Structure formats: C-alpha cells, structure tokens
Amino acid sequence: MNITDNSQRQESGNPDKPNAPKPNITIRDVAKAAGVAPSTVSRAFARPGRVNEATAQRIYDIADRIGYRATAIRAHTNDDHLNGMLGIVVADLSNPVFAEYTRAAQHECLSNGFGLLVLDSEENAVIERTSIHTAIQHIDGLILASSRLSDAGIRKLAQTKPLVTLNRSIRGIQSVIGDVQTGLGQAVEHLATLGHRNFTYLSGPESSWQDGVRWRTLSSICSRHHLKLRRIPSNAPTFSGGFRTGEVFLNNPTDTVIAYNDIMAIGFIAALHSRNIDVPGQVSVVGIDDVQFSSLVSPALSTVRLPRKELGTKAVTEVLSLIHHVKQTNDRRPIMLESSYVVRASTGKVNPSLASIAHE
User: Fold this and answer.
1) For a tag site, which of 95, 118, 235, 354 has the least CB within 10 Å?
2) How far apart are CA 290 and CA 92, in angstroms?
3) Of 49, 36, 277, 63, nearest in space to 172 by CA
4) Interior CA angle at 91 toward 37 and 124, to 5°?
C-alpha cells in the first residue's frame, strides 16, 4: 500500500516552493484573478466534476499563486483537559463502506486509549450539522467521512476542534483520501483490451466531492485512450438508485458501465437482469469500493478496490497527531492511499451486437 503526502491532482502546485500566505485572500480574489464568478471557484474546490477541467486547473494554479487558504487551520487544544473521545461522522452507516471506516477507526482509537462517538448524517447536511453541534463538547477531535457540509462550514469546525476529512480535500485542513486514479486506469485499460470503446458512468450524489473526482478522473483516462464516455445522474448512491438508472441506460446502451460505488453497480445489474440482459455477455459492469459482498453476488463484481481499513486507521492517527501537537508543520496536503483493480465475472469481451439490447 502506497501512502504519499503528494497534493491531490485537482489542487496542483509546486509543493517544494510554496508561496508565502497572504492575509485576507478570499474566494472573490481568486475569481477576479481567474476571470470567473465566485460560484465557479467554489464549485471547483467543493465539486470538482462540475467545472471544466481547464478552468478548474487555472483556478487551482491562481489560488496557489496568490496564497488562497495556504495556511493550515488549527484548533486550540489542551492535553490536560481531554475527554478521551473522538467523533466520526459518516454519510450513511448502512453502507458497508462507512461501516468499515468506523470499525477501523474504533480499533485505532482503542489502541490509543480513546473512545469513538459515531454520528450518521444520513446523506443530509442539516442532520450532519445538528449532530456535530450536539456532540462537539464531548469530543477532542473529529473525522468527517464524505461530509456533505460546505467548505466554509468545515473550516469553521476546524477552528473549534482538531479535524480530519476522509475522502474530501479542503485547503488548510488535513485529509486522507482513497485515490481512485490507479484503479480506474487499470480498469479502463483492461476493458479496452477486451474491445470496449463506449463507457457510461453512473454518478453519485451531486453534493459529493468524491463523485466529482471520480467523474473527472474517468473522463481524463477515457480521453487519453480515445474512448467515448457519458454520464447518467442518480438520485441516491444506493441499490435502488443504481436500479433506477437501468431504464435510462437502455435508451442508449454502451459497452461498459462504471458506477460510483459497488452498491449502485449491483442495483444496476439487477435492473439489467430484470430485462433478461446478460452481464457480462451483453454489458460489462464495474463498481468502486470492493465491499465484502461484491465477490458474493452473481456475477461477482469487478471493482476498484479502496483501502478502507487503512483510510480509517490513518484518519485517526492524523487527528491524534493534531490533538497532541505532534505535527509542527503547516503542510496539510492530502494523504493519498492508492487503489487497485479487481477483475471478477461482471466484465468480459465486448458484444458486437450491443445496440440490439435497447428496449429489450
């Protein structure tokens, strides 16, 4: 497992020659320098898949140059008055991905003499904000796993308690991220060798930073390989959300489908099976996460594996280092943990008569 402290690709700059932070640099200053609206700058950071790649990169470069959020955000802590409790906020505890993050975080907490308070936001920013407000006085540090809060809201929290984000990058705040680039690259290359040329991405929640990264990463990879890619939105990153995308897909089918996560991919396969469409005989399907039951469904799901145990563990160690003032550096670049591609039975050679499945 490779663990690096390299900057997230969407927020590139020169880490070896950081510019000195300038006071009072705001999002409006970045927007003015880039010649775009402040809302575009906000989307570029919070929802990277919703902004043109060239425009987003120009915004990141300008932000680096003028010193926007270059200084790490620190909370005041006192080792003599600790509660011995960390908090973790997850987007959906019924999702096995977040259950694994929580279990790994709990084990690491216990090994360091801390307890863990678990808060389920149910994919709702209001619930997330309210639950954190209720718990904040009882915890010494906080992990936000796939938070749906705004960047500004998270920065404000980070001024109150030591905070680490999991699978979301925010300037000035330490983050731990599962980097999908390697795994998605391996998946696309494997499918291309099987003759696949037309891809569909089933998207995750519109408010998800990770969904934006996955879409942009997949778009870049497909572009390099001269492959066609389209996107189908979904209203929920769940089995039913994936199932509902099946009808839209069949109006204009493609060789391959890559879903935002495994659960959506499994729901999508169920939708195809309900129409007597074979996977992978007629359509190949790939998920992202490699949750435990992905190898148990039929067909077993090919997927991009993310190191969830390592992510949960690393998030705790980073929060504790902030609480105990172990880290003296202002360097808060994302810590990236690498993904890999797992080939299973849901992918196969391209079907030359694919168009015939439309409206079957």
Assistant:
1) 235
2) 17
3) 63
4) 60
Residue bearing tokens 């209203």: 235
Q: pTM (2 decimals)?
A: 0.79
- Position of tokens 């994302």? 334
Rounded Cα–Cα distance for residues 90 and 80 (Å): 29
Rounded Cα distance, 334 and 178, in Å: 10
Q: What angle do CA 97, 245, 215 make, to 5 degrees?
A: 60
End-to-end CA distance of the chain: 44
3-state SS class at 358: coil
Three-class DSSP category at 255: coil
Return the H-helix or E-strand segment holding 228: strand 228-232
How many other C-beta atoms lie within 10 A of the C-beta of residue 162? 25
Residue showing tokens 């490779």: 2
Q: Collect contacts of 45-49 with beta carbons under 8 A, ≥24 apart.
A: 45/11, 45/151, 45/170, 45/171, 46/150, 46/151, 46/209, 47/206, 47/207, 47/208, 47/209, 47/211, 47/212, 48/10, 48/209, 48/212, 48/213, 48/216, 49/211, 49/212, 49/213, 49/214, 49/215, 49/216
Helices of type H across the chain: 27-34, 38-46, 53-66, 96-111, 125-135, 151-158, 181-193, 209-224, 239-251, 262-274, 308-323
From first to last of its 360 residues, the chain has per-residue pLDDT tens of 444 443 344 443 343 444 444 456 777 888 888 888 877 877 777 666 667 778 877 887 888 788 776 566 666 565 558 999 999 999 999 999 999 999 999 999 999 999 999 999 998 999 999 999 999 999 999 999 989 898 889 999 999 999 999 999 998 899 999 999 999 999 999 999 999 999 999 999 888 889 999 999 999 999 999 999 999 999 899 999 999 999 999 999 999 999 999 999 999 999 999 999 999 999 999 999 999 999 999 999 999 999 999 999 999 999 999 998 876 556 688 999 999 999 999 999 998 765 556 544
